[in-house]
UniProtKB/TrEMBL annotation:
Name of a matching Pfam family: ABC_tran
Membrane topology designation: Multi-pass membrane protein
An example molecular function term from Gene Ontology annotations: ABC-type oligopeptide transporter activity
PANTHER family linked: ATP-BINDING CASSETTE SUB-FAMILY B MEMBER 10, MITOCHONDRIAL, ATP-DEPENDENT PERMEASE MDL1, MITOCHONDRIAL
Subcellular location: Cell membrane
Protein's name in the database: ABC transporter
Swiss-Prot/TrEMBL keywords: Membrane, Transmembrane, Transmembrane helix
Length: 535
């Protein structure tokens, strides 16, 4: 940045001194002073060479600064998103985060870029003012007074521009979120005939963004007009007064040419200063949004404790609800309200604060990374990413081909891989969109089983598959996790009937424990949830 500003200052100064050298050369020519003419012509040539060199370097540093500002913003935002983890979607919409890469980085980069030229332009305006004051105080005073007046005239346009740009940025984020939701749920929308309704909603919000853009453009057009009109008025005043002074003999012909050249030259730095005000305003709006993301703190913070090796094979207990996940057993969790089960699994996986212990050690005392290594929560919000299918299933890169195939078999996903031309080497598209909802669910289950964590928490792992497939998964899941600690949140009788222990939660507390059939006979609330009120 500092080197680029230095190059920009030299570039502008080389241009600012050309009219003075040109005026001296004209006076030398008028006075038939050949030696002076050659010297000033050489000075003009030298100033041109300095412009060429510093102009190239300034532009290179400007591009470097733009790229550095833009892509460092992407890097720190991505790191923050990773750091926030499950906190991010609770605090910000998808569109608001995506807009950082779509538009904010350009405005931030432009703001850094214009600082180079803008700083040099201010120095050039100051230099020209000094030259004019030294040559002709009245003309110098016109420039000295006129430039601040121009800045003051542009100032009232910046506040409404800032406000309208902020409003447009909010609407763009909302629209991006709407588009993401529509694309993500397109299959469902087609299935229920909701395309027309959501298309109308998107069109309405899109028109809102368009109207906001027009409001921004109306202020920007006034700003663009001011960039032409105000310097033009100043140039006209300087040129007219300089011509009067030349006619009166108060300045030489060369000085008149120099004054006219300065008046014309001032258009560029004055326009740059106005452009800087516009781009810095947009950059400020974008930077505020980025800083909002960067200022968020994760709900869960790292602890400093350690987990004893023997604690890994002990009971995982949620103190708030009383749910105890016994080691080496397949435990099923049934909640009267689905949100209660989700809250419990979030606490067990330490995605939200809670009084949870593993082998008597509080998870709050442990680093988040260590909790993740031992406890894996797999729900239906998990995504499949672009890449080779095998890499998608073995995210840790430690499983053998046999491990992956055993996990696929347990999740009844063998047929999905067999149907792919390249098998496990097939490429997965964005969000696994080439797979149906049931296929995606089975692949997510296979991925969780391949990871083979010490404690696996599955949230409704069979909700999108047919009854026959669900029965096979229920049979194979217990065998695949034999000797390992597993908790399945489900209301499926097929899965519940094969669990070692079923825990029934009502009003956020454990109401009963036992086998599926025992609870059907002894607990009316459990029976109502599992049979959905039938019988």
């Amino acid at each position: 940045m500092l080197v680029g500003i230095s190059m920009a200052i030299l570039w502008w100064l080389a241009q600012a001194l050309v009219p003075a050298a040109l005026g001296r050369a004209i006076d030398a020519l008028a006075g038939s002073r050949t030696g002076d003419l050659v010297e000033w012509s050489a000075a003009i040539l030298g100033l041109g060479a300095i412009q060429a060199v510093t102009g190239v370097l300034r532009h290179r540093f400007a591009v470097l600064t733009w790229l550095g500002a833009a892509y460092r913003t992407v890097q720190v935002t991505a790191r923050q998103a990773t750091r926030l983890g499950a906190t991010l979607p609770k605090r910000l919409s998808t569109g608001e985060v995506v807009s950082v890469g779509n538009s904010d980085i350009a405005h931030i980069g432009n703001a850094m870029d214009i600082l180079l030229r803008g700083t040099g332009a201010l120095v050039a305006i100051g230099t020209v003012t000094v030259i004019l004051l030294t040559t002709s105080p009245p003309l110098g005073l016109i420039v000295l007074i006129g430039v601040p007046l121009m800045a003051a005239a542009v100032g009232p346009l910046l506040r409404p521009l800032h406000k309208r740009q902020h409003a447009q940025r909010d609407l763009q984020g909302d629209l991006a979120t709407r588009a993401s939701d529509i694309v993500g749920g397109l299959r469902v929308l087609r299935g229920i005939g909701g395309e027309a309704l959501f298309s109308a909603r998107y069109r309405e919000e899109s028109q809102g963004v368009r109207r906001a853009g027009v409001r921004v453009a109306s202020v920007e057009s006034a700003l663009e007009g001011a960039q032409i009109l105000l310097p033009g008025v100043l140039i006209a005043a300087v040129t007219w007064l300089g011509a009067q002074f030349a006619l009166d003999g108060r300045i030489s012909p060369g000085q008149l040419v120099a004054f006219y050249a300065y008046a014309a030259f001032l258009i560029a730095p004055l326009r740059t200063v106005t452009e800087a005000a516009d781009k810095l305003t947009k950059g400020h709006v974008a930077a505020r949004r980025v800083c909002r993301i960067l200022s968020l703190e994760p709900e869960i913070r790292d602890g400093t404790g350690t987990l004893p090796a023997e604690a890994v094979s002990d009971v995982l207990l949620d103190g708030e609800s009383g749910v105890a996940v016994r080691p080496g057993r397949l435990t099923a969790l049934v909640a009267a309200v689905p949100e209660e089960a989700a809250a419990i699994t979030d606490r067990l996986g330490r995605y939200t604060p809670g009084e949870v212990t593993l082998g008597g050690v509080s998870l709050a005392e442990l680093p988040v990374g260590e909790v993740r290594r031992h406890i894996l929560v797999a729900d239906n919000a998990a995504r499949l990413f672009t890449g080779r299918l095998r890499d998608e299933l073995d995210v840790r890169g430690t499983a053998t081909d046999d491990d992956v195939r055993l996990a696929l078999h347990a999740a009844c996903a063998d047929d999905i891989v067999e149907a792919l031309p390249d098998g496990l080497d097939a490429r997965v598209a964005e969000a696994g969109r080439e797979f149906s909802g049931g296929q995606q669910q089975r692949l997510r289950l296979a991925r969780a089983l391949t990871a083979d964590p010490d404690v696996l928490v599955l949230v409704e792992p069979t909700s999108a598959v047919d009854a026959h497939t669900e029965a096979r998964i229920a049979d194979r899941l217990g065998k695949a996790r034999a000797g390992r600690t597993t908790l399945v949140c489900t209301t499926s009788p097929l899965v519940l009937d094969r669990a070692d222990l079923v825990v029934f939660v009502e009003d956020g507390k454990v109401r009963a424990e036992g086998s599926h059939r025992e609870l059907l006979d002894a607990e009316p609330g459990y029976s109502a949830v599992v049979t959905r009120g039938e019988g």
